[in-house]
Amino acid sequence: MGNKILVVDDIRKNIQLLGSVLGKEGYAVSYATDGAKALEMAASERFDVILLDIMMPEMDGFEVCRRLKQNPETEDATILFLTAKSEQSDIVRGLQEGAVDYLTKPFNTTELLVRVETHMALREAKANLLRSKAELEQKNRDLEVLLKENQKALAEIKTLRGILPICSSCKKIRDDEGYWTQIESYIQARSLAEFSHSLCMDCAKKLYPDFIKS
User: Fold this and answer.
1) Using CB atoms within 10 A of its CB, is residue 129 exposed (0-12), middle (13-18) or buried (19+)?
2) Which of 42, 81, 112, 158 could in theory staple to 94 by disulfide, Cβ–Cβ 3.0 to 4.6 A?
3) Cβ atoms of 25 and 1 closer than 8 Å
């Protein structure tokens, strides 16, 4: 598996037992025998799961958990209490301090492994979800920028602006290169307009006087 677990316990026999059980499942196990060392290690190396004892000298597990959750570098730590304290009040407090689970000693090996694996999977699923969300947000931002650029480009290309030099006789327009072109061609090249040809009444009378009566 290769997932990293930090075991925090002041009793080396417990550390050796957990190291053996977890190591056989392919987990990379590190350990700390006091709270201060656990905080130092968690801040310098990201662990997938922290198995944390409560009853330790100088700094108990509750305080370690609280400090981990208060530190921006370790606030996302997945903490499982593994302790001999089994009172309901201790379990509630442990979860209130930010732990995701609470197991009591002596532990059942199968249950321990299932819970660790479950929280590993949940942590990975959460990380994948956050990555997908970040990627989607970035794609949306990129799309918004692209749409704005396209709209601006379209507006620049398809908008007729300024004074158009038009011949007072034949009504041709002089383009930017100085060539005179039919007004239809000029407008179609610079806008989305389409033309259909017909005759106004005045021109029809002039061109076909025998067919058009006043």
Assistant:
1) exposed
2) 81
3) yes
